[in-house]
Design brief:
It is a single chain. By secondary structure, the protein is an all-beta fold. The protein has one domain. Helix content is 0%, strand content 55%. The N and C termini lie far apart (29 Å).
Length: 99
């Protein structure tokens, strides 16, 4: 399984044996600016430009949690820090570290 998104409102799920996406993960209302898959989990994490983070369960391809970054004017991306089970969002005007 491969996931992709490029300044879109949805994430495309690909199977390497197909030429078209096999699924679309929808739910963001703004452009997705970052997508990551924390190691040793069955999750993908997406973040849109308005600061909405969605955690996707890759076993059933559903959104399992939505997090809103308060006070962010524009989010540039997210990074998973798997060792500490944290997400770091870099945004304007500051950084946000999940708790």
């Amino acid at each position: 399984m491969i996931l992709s998104s490029g300044y879109e409102f949805e994430i495309l799920v690909w199977n390497l044996t197909k030429t078209e996406p096999v699924e679309k993960l929808s739910g963001h209302e703004s452009l997705i600016v970052s997508l990551c898959c924390p190691s040793e989990t069955f999750n993908a994490v997406s973040c849109d430009i308005k600061g909405v983070i969605k955690i996707w369960d890759l076993r059933d391809l559903n959104c399992s949690q939505t997090i809103y970054i308060a006070g962010a004017l524009q989010v540039m991306g997210i990074v998973s820090i798997s060792k500490y089970r944290k997400l770091l969002a870099y945004c304007i005007p500051s950084l946000y570290l999940s708790t």
